[in-house]
Amino acid sequence: MPYNKISLRLAVLPFLLLFGCGSTSINVKSQSSISSQAYESITFGIVPISREDPEIERAILSMIQERLEAKGLVYVNRKPDLLVATYFYVGIHEEYIPPTTVVWRNFNPDISGRRERDLKNQGERRTETDRMASEITRSSKTIDGYVNTKYYQNIQVYFTRMVDKETVEIVWKGEVDSHNKKNNILDVAPKLLDELLGEFPQKTGKPEVRTVKF
Question: Which of 53, 71, 104, 183 has the fewest CB atoms within 10 Å, i.e. the most exposed one?
């Protein structure tokens, strides 16, 4: 392969890594009004509240139930200690990426007709005279601008309890969101809920903004 093509590939590699990487930055927040010990041996029930996407809501609530039961909470149909509800949202986020010019150097043969790599393979080094006589040119390639389309996903989880017949208290709430290429929230919900409910009942100490792989 010609040297200039190798140089171009190395120059463009950072951009390929940036746009081809499967890692996504997410934002996780949670807040509790009672101590983590208060959740020990507690029962919970599920409260559907969505009128627009009940099937997606049921799927997400099922994921939440599975993760809470894995933490030792007991799901019951009647008179639970806590009621769990969720809210979710998906939207389109478009960002214009301006044109980028990549510049690289062409290492042409020196006066001996051999390239730098040829000399190294032969255990030789260029003399200063050779270096001065060697012509080094610069080439460039412009990567066209484009619109990068990502999808914004947001999942919120609420733990509530009845104070009296007319009053509901939120005892724990959490929220997680991300921007990625997946437009189906159910594709990312398992990982998002793992991160969000990992902060329940006690925070992990991880930063709110973190990187995950889907």
Answer: 71
